[in-house]
Amino acid sequence: MMKRVLVFICLFICIQSTVHAQGIHFEKISLEDAMAKAKAENKLVFIDFYTVWCGPCKILAKQVFPLESVGKLYNREFVSIKLDAEKEGKAAAKKYDVYSYPTLLFVDGDGKAVYKDTGSMGVDDFIALGKKAVESVNSEYSLEKLQALYPEKQNDERFLKVYFKKMIEYGQDPSDGIEKWLAVQTEIKENDVDMMEFLMNNRKHLLVAGKAEEILDANMEEYMDIATKSEERILRYMKGIMAKNTRDKAVEDKDAELMGVFLENWKKLPSNLKKEENLIDHELTYLVLAKDYKAYKAKAVEHIESLISAKSIEEIQKSDKETYEKYKASYEAHPTAMGAINLKIYEEGVEAIAIIKEICKRGQQYLFMVEGKKDYKVLQGWVKYGNELSANHYLLLNLEAQILVKRGKMDEAIEMKKAALEKWPSSDKKRPTIEYELEQMIKKQA
User: Fold this and answer.
1) CA distance 223 to 215
2) Interatomic CA distance for residues 158 and 166, integer angstroms
3) How is the chain split into domains, by residue range?
């Protein structure tokens, strides 16, 4: 009997050792507890920001995190935790500007970010990422040191070059550093092929209305003369890319001034670099960032009313039915898996659903600015029209639930949220967020 007990204990210890040897040990603790533990153990915190719908997140979780070679480094150097960026990790994701998934973030015991990267990667790159995070803490140019020195080094050409390169290496936004360096640099002539290549190589970090755009505008003809065919193609789209970068940064930073700069620049872009129908979205986004709620509500009402009055419901439904029948005939002649998915979309009514999505998008923003009965009446009018297009669509049900929450009618809101969730497609990436919101509503009401 004693031998059996000893054998069992030995087996248990072996199994436990094997489990811990197999990949990263993710602690089931809060970020605050992880930081405290990391500080006590002189380690960094490794945070895997993920979402349940993120494909690359699942690849990392299945193919990289469980490997022994990965666990050997990460378990030694880091206190590791996983945070769902749309649930329990929502506040932390907002704090650390996490907008894409997976985001792999390393912070010290005080919560300061020291290294950051995004996207799925192979085993070797992931191990190298961990090593870089450790090295960055003691580096002459750690992220913390760079950011502390940056304000007083605005005219230091050498420092600025190191700064923006390190920012790129650390997965941080280097756009301001690049702009500052371009303004003072003396090593490359602006009309030289090296400058053209620099701008193209860093195009995803360049913004409008700055030194980069000034150099590009002044030397475009020269660049086109020396560019290869593939480089010419990139140069033609550079202004559009820079505009998109500017909008993305303005939204991420909640910077109304930068959004205004983008908007003015966007209006001047040639038609082949923009979609005119996006103008209303850009204008409304600017008003949200500027917190000009009165102007937002007026423009949103004007926009939705224009959609409602453009066609009658009968005309929209007739057009959608004709479009569906044409696609159905095409699909039946050439059936494919993707065709079957699209057939379902067409069956719902492409134009009707597009209007409902726009109503719900603007309705959710409008809801945060509601001041009284008049505003609620506007929202209820939008919902009523949407239901006439497609009765009890899950997006409309969810908007109604949000309106009820705002009005303090929590019991009704929970029932409406449940109704929305019952209809919500299981494949939709927003479904887990809706499930989480419902859970939180029920907890608060209990």
Assistant:
1) 11
2) 12
3) 21-138
d(CA 349, CA 342): 11
Q: Please measure the distance between the N-terminal and C-terminal CA atoms of the chain and give it in whole angstroms.
A: 51
pTM of the entire structure? 0.79
DSSP structure string for 175-187: HHHHHHHHHH--S
How many CA atoms, within 13 angstroms, populate the side-chain half-sphere of residue 325? Answer: 6
Q: Which residues contact 14 (CB under 8 A, 6 or more apart)?
A: none
Q: Rounding to the nearest 10 degrees, give the CA dihedral for residues 320, 322, 326, 327.
A: 10
Question: Residue 372 and residue 375: Cα distance in Å, rounded?
Answer: 6
Top CATH class of 21-138 equals alpha beta
Question: What is the mean pLDDT of the segment spanning 407-416?
Answer: 95
pLDDT in the model for residue 52: 87
DSSP 327-362: HHHHHHHS--HHHHHHHHHHHH-HHHHHHHHHHHHH
Angle (CA) 339-341-343 rounded to 5° is 65
DSSP characters over 13-63: HHHHHHHHHSS--B--S-HHHHHHHHHHHT-EEEEEEE-TT-HHHHHHHHH
Condensed to tens digits (0 to 9), the pLDDT of residues 228-269 reads 999 999 999 999 999 999 999 999 889 999 999 999 999 999
What is the Cα–Cα distance from 83 to 321, expressed in whole angstroms?
44
Mean pLDDT of 175-191: 96
- Give the mean pLDDT of 204-224: 97
Q: Give the pLDDT of residue 379.
A: 96
- Provide the token pair at 101: 């998934």
Q: How many CB atoms lie within 10 A of CB 79?
A: 25
